[in-house]
What we know:
The protein has helices at about 20-50, 55-85, 90-125, 130-135, 135-150, 150-160, 180, 190-225, 225-260, 265-275, 275-290, 295-305, and strands at about 10, 90, 170. It is mostly helical. Strands 2-1-3 form a 3-stranded mixed β-sheet. Helix 1 (about 20-50) runs antiparallel to helix 2 (about 55-85).
Amino acid sequence: MDNSTFPFYFNLTMFMNIGHYRYPVFVVGLLLYSFIVSANLILTLVICRERTLHEPMYIFIACLSVSSLYGSTGFFPRFLIDLLSDTHMISRPACFTQIYVIYTYTSYELTILGIMAHDRYVAVCHPLHYHRKMNSKTMITLAILAWILPVPVINTYIYLSSRLPLCGNEIHKVFCANWNIVKLSCVSTVVNNIVGMFFTIALFSLSLFYVLYTYLRIVVVCWKSSADFKGRVLNKCLPHVVSFVIYCIIGFSDIVLSRYNLEAMNPFVAIILSLEFVIIPPVVNPLVYGLKLPEIRRHILKLLQWFK
């Protein structure tokens, strides 16, 4: 392997833009990571501990929290270490591992939100058949599919990128990203672009259209129902809608940002925008589900009182 075209280390150059602010940023990052771990861990433990919450909707919420723990742990420890370091080199294996973790995490968020939409659709549109259609076997199958389906797609991305000969080793981000490595290629990246675009559009489009379809059916059912029924549906579906809308906005902005020249932007704005995916969903999701759903909120308060 030629070290000039297959560098063993990559340099994360955007850390240089933080400069003397790295200590305040480190404190903020540590507090954010601590909150993410604590909030998502509490939510997961409450759902696993309470038998009354062993229903598809709550199990899928627990899956979403586990995904947040997985994604934030794949980013924050390395990010915090780099903030205090004078050098910001990351080895090739560590870089591609970070890409795998962050990309699978973002994909898991989407697939889990998709199966949560399916659960709400069945609960609202087929209430009499809900327990038959969303039994334990179906719930486990959907959860496994949500965790497995993104893996071959991400593996394909990484495999194609890892074979590219590179004419540099500078990544203009604070973490490794597949597109930034592809841009360093010395050869044509048409195959990478086509495969990446196809899988990204396919994954996002299928999930987006299915979620929109399920909520269109839910709206039709609610339109013909009583105000009390509409209120109960809103309480159950609103947290999921909020999570999905936030994900779509962040996903769109991240795709646009990855094609934009970050060096032309204010460095702090560029860093904050590039970290949306690993900060906002893991922070917002436990707040939305933990505070909005009364069943979860009641058990969380009981657990916190027990610790006192």
